[in-house]
Design goal:
With about 475 residues, the protein is an alpha+beta fold. Helix content is about 35%, strand content about 25%. The protein has 14 helices and 23 strands. It has helices at about 10-20, 40-60, 70-75, 80-85, 110-120, 165-185, 235, 260-270, 300-315, 330-340, 350-355, 375-400, 410-415, 440-450; strands at about 25-30, 35, 60-65, 70, 90-95, 100-105, 130-140, 155-165, 190-195, 210-215, 220-230, 240-245, 250, 255-260, 290, 320, 345-350, 355-360, 370, 405, 430-435, 450-455, 475-480. The strands form five sheets. The chain has an eleven-stranded mixed sheet, with helices on both faces. It has a five-stranded mixed sheet with strand order 16-15-17-18-19, sandwiched between helices. α2 (about 40-60) packs across α6. The radius of gyration is 25 Å and the shape is globular. The two termini are about 25 Å apart. About 45% of the residues are buried.
């Protein structure tokens, strides 16, 4: 219950872990750096996955699956790619009691094995485009891990598409980032900034990387999704050529894009409070919980009344939990369901039954409403929609209140200050300023303050007049600077 939660303003990192563990979303694994996703946590991932999968299919993509064991030599074919992933690779050298002729890498990402296969599938422009996605697990040997946010093994989806022209591939890269942006805001209630990554922050092996960036309650950024324009890099590495419309051979143009179980962590950190988990209704395992309040002399009638309310809500298409456990007090149940983040609590006691009422309580605001039982389904629909909207509005207001324009390096130093443990007094947020595009001043910022360029927002690149806020050179871009996960 709430007393198990470290307050955000005391230690934000511990607050987050307390919620994950006490809301029974995940647990630690005997394998260091890995996690066990518990049913309540996996239910959030399932709802997230199913909705995103629907959106992929609506844009013409199909699901497939590739092996998680990849020949080590495949990664070495794209130099920038292998250099970017080498520190994180887990390698299998023995199997079946024998040493392997060639080591196999546990999938850190699938570009290499997919493009080796695409070579067999693509001969002509008529074979293009290939619009494929896979839901899978990957392994990256992380040194510092945190449940959901960064684990050695995690779940994700990775889209890998092949195209006839550069323009088609760029359009696909942008299209899928927009799918992520709308999904993040409409389903996860995460307001995000969409833009292009800097050269230093782009995906290893990409020509360009685009991202959506969200602000957590400790004012750090979370990269909530990425879409990569790979150019012809992987096609050239694996010799994937096709006969174009002019009858000549050309290399295929590629994209990849993905999100992972870190989105579950992002939802927790954006919306939850010191009472426990807060989750958008569209993601909740249970949208409502009905709690009958009874004593031994009225138990049967109250249970029957509350069960009727729960059944009516279910008949209206709602996901409903019914808590008729008689071993715990109503107060304990209220706190426990608040911990679990159920969006609406429905209370029904003997006085409510006599009057034909129920009490409905919003998790996001704590507001209580007395509602006629017959009107509960309609009111539930109204409340759930209101909660979904409020969570997005509240997160956007927080982000906007903690975003500042910066003109020079002193302003950046003043804005970010010294990193602290609590959320309320943590300095910084999103700093927006002009940037020259130089790697040196970007590297200095990271070394001095652990601040990086999150992206260059698409909608803020017009009228770039002025000097770089990092070094004073003529500016080329407008960028978002932040500490990040």
């Amino acid at each position: 219950m709430a007393e198990k939660i470290t307050p955000r303003n005391v230690d934000y990192s511990q607050w987050y872990i307390d919620i994950v563990l006490n809301a029974k979303l995940a647990d630690y694994s005997p394998v260091k750096g890995c996690m066990v996703i518990r049913p309540r946590g996996y239910a959030i991932w399932e709802r997230l996955r199913d909705e995103l999968d629907r959106r992929f299919k609506d844009t013409g993509h199909q699901n497939c699956y590739f092996p998680m064991l990849i020949p080590e030599s495949f990664l070495k074919k794209e130099a920038e790619h292998v250099e970017g992933f080498s520190p994180e690779l887990a390698v299998v050298t023995h199997a079946g009691g024998d040493k392997l002729d060639e080591p196999l890498v546990l999938r850190p990402t699938s570009e290499t094995i997919i493009w080796n296969t695409y070579k067999n599938w693509i001969q002509s422009w008529r074979d293009l485009p290939l619009l494929y996605n896979q839901w899978a697990n990957v392994v990256r040997w992380e040194k510092r891990t945190r449940l959901f946010l960064r684990t050695t093994e995690f779940l994700w989806q990775e889209g890998h598409t092949a195209h006839e022209t550069r323009q088609e591939a760029v359009e696909e890269t942008e299209r899928m980032l927009e799918v992520y942006r709308k999904f993040a805001e409409e389903v996860l209630c995460l307001p995000v900034i969409a833009g292009k990554k800097s050269e230093a922050e782009k995906f290893a092996g990409a020509v360009d990387t685009y991202s959506i960036e969200a602000m957590m309650q400790d004012k750090k950024a979370l990269q909530a999704g990425t879409s990569h324009f790979l150019g012809q890099n992987f096609a050239k590495a694996f010799d994937v050529q096709f006969q174009n419309r002019d009858g000549n051979l050309d290399y295929v143009w590629a994209t990849s894009w993905g999100v992972s179980t870190r989105l579950v962590g992002g939802v927790i950190m954006t919306h939850s409070d010191d009472k426990g988990l807060v989750v958008p209704p569209l993601l909740a395992q249970d949208e409502l919980v009905v709690i009958p309040i009874f004593k031994s002399d009225n138990k049967a009638e109250v249970l029957a009344y509350a069960k009727g309310v729960a059944d009516a809500l279910k008949a209206d298409g709602r996901r409903v939990a019914f808590d008729d456990d008689d071993s715990s007090s109503p107060g304990w149940k209220f706190a426990e369901w608040e911990m679990r983040g159920v969006p609406v609590r429905v209370e029904a006691g003997p006085k409510d039954a006599a009057a034909g009422n129920v009490v409905m309580v919003r998790r996001d605001t704590g507001e209580k409403l007395v509602v006629k039982a017959a009107e509960a389904p309609a009111k539930a629909r109204e409340l759930l929609a209101a909660i979904q909207k409020n969570l997005l509005d509240r997160a956007r207001a927080f982000r906007d209140a903690n975003t500042r324009a910066v003109a020079d390096y002193q302003a950046i130093l003043d804005f970010f200050g010294k990193e602290t443990a609590g959320a309320d007094d943590s300095p910084g947020g999103f700093a927006e300023g002009l940037w020259c595009g130089g790697r040196d001043c970007e590297a200095k910022l990271k070394a001095d303050l652990k601040v990086t360029i999150r992206n260059m927002p698409f909608d803020r690149q017009k009228d770039i007049n002025g000097t770089c806020c990092l070094c004073g050179a003529p500016a080329k871009h407008r960028a978002i600077f932040a500490r990040s996960y």
